Amino acid sequence: MIESFSEKIIRGKNFKFHTIKVPLRNEKGEVWGLCGIARDITEYETIKQDLIKSHDRLQLISNNIVEAIFILDMDLKFTFVTPSIKILGYEIEELLENGIEKILTAQSYVDAMKVLREELEIEKSHKLDKERARVLTLQIRKKNRSILWAEITFKFLRDGEGKPNGILGVARDVTETYETHQKLNRSYRQLDRLLEGVVNALASAVEKRDPYTAGHQRRVAELAVAITKELGVSEEIIDYLRIAALLHDVG
Asked: Residue 195's domain spans which residues?
């Protein structure tokens, strides 16, 4: 069998052909002719080249994107990860042999499983948004055992019947943002404690000035808090009102 590829210009257009030729033999085994089949593969080659270009573009994006994109099967095993996952110190092949439990801390794994169960429960709903996505913040364990915080957005991949058959996720390193947020929260708590001390000191000073009304400010504050809780007011407003009640006799 002889196989060949050729190009021909027909009516000003370039065509590509795949040709197969088979020798015809007589009873003595001598070749007396050829039987050939030529197939027009112009469209096939065009599609093939387009696919190669698309693959190259996707590979370029995949290699340079900062966020890590991954796909899990329904057993939470990695089936695809972008090269950016190497920030964790793992090779792609290492992750493809394992599930998310390899890179999540124990508590984050528990949190992730809880969210997954919630999402699978939602799947039973008749009013189902199949394009919905969830966002959660989890602790990721790097290969060197250090920890980073990642914001992970994920949604289900679906089969032809619309049933979940995988999970598409995007992970972004938010360690610096998370740690800054934690520092701010600690500062706010320290300021709250300082303010609480100042308010109590002022309330005590008023009570000492007028012993006949001792405890009055605190009782007013307790009553105000009880009323606003019954009204369903937010905790932040309740706290402001409590401070105002404690200081209502100052000045």
From this structure: 185-246
